[in-house]
Write a structure and sequence with these properties.
This protein has 183 residues and is mainly alpha-helical. It has helices spanning 4-12, 20-29, 44-66, 73-85, 90-96, 101-113, 135-155, 161-182, and strands at residues 88-89, 117-121, 129-133. The protein has a three-stranded antiparallel sheet with strand order 1-3-2. The longest helix is centred in the N-terminal third of the chain and has 23 residues, at 44-66.
């Protein structure tokens, strides 16, 4: 089993990604950029398909960044939520990390067996089980998350800062609109 440090090491040795500016300069040299051309219209269906494809590619990317950490993607999401949000009831974690009640229970059980989390009764309500990181769980997720974040930041270099802002703003609006229709 490869450690998270080895996964980080292999990520550093990869070829640098092309940035938006370097791509644009290359396209300009090749005569591919027409500054006066208006962007093509993208239908809602086309946008949806692009999002689905990007989502699946990003899931694969995440699995690659986690390789050697010993964590699955759902376990990573749970530990990351606990790292950044603190101890939470099991039924609160599930919706935050997009896991069903059955899936979150099984995943927490796996993390519990590995000694990465604790699960205790709430002081306010004994029916509620609160999950928290152990010291070893905190060390692991801090290391794995830092390596993952560096790799995601590196991946995002293909976009200019302006493109990142536009995409984030657009996806939020698109997601909110979909949430209102679905509710």
């Amino acid at each position: 089993m490869q450690t998270a440090a080895k996964a980080t090491e292999s990520a550093r040795s990869q070829k640098p990604l092309k940035t938006a500016k370097s791509r644009q300069r290359k396209d300009e040299r090749a005569g591919k950029v027409d500054r006066d051309r208006k962007p093509d219209k993208v239908s809602g269906t086309q946008l949806w398909l692009v999002l689905i494809k990007a989502y699946h590619s990003l899931l694969g990317f995440t699995e690659h960044t986690l390789k050697g950490s010993g964590l699955g993607e759902s376990e990573f999401r749970i530990l990351e939520a606990l790292l950044h949000k603190g101890p939470m009831p099991v039924n609160t974690i599930g919706p935050k990390v997009f896991l069903t009640p059955g899936s979150i229970s099984v995943a927490v059980d796996r993390l519990l067996k590995r000694g990465l989390v604790t699960r205790t009764n709430s002081l306010e309500d004994r029916r509620v089980r609160v999950v928290d990181l152990t010291a070893s769980g905190r060390r692991l997720i801090e290391q794995v998350f830092a390596a993952h974040a560096r790799q995601v930041d590196r991946l995002a270099e293909v976009l200019s800062p302006k493109e990142r802002r536009q995409i984030a703003r657009g996806l939020k609006a698109f997601g909110k609109a979909a949430a209102h229709v679905g509710s």
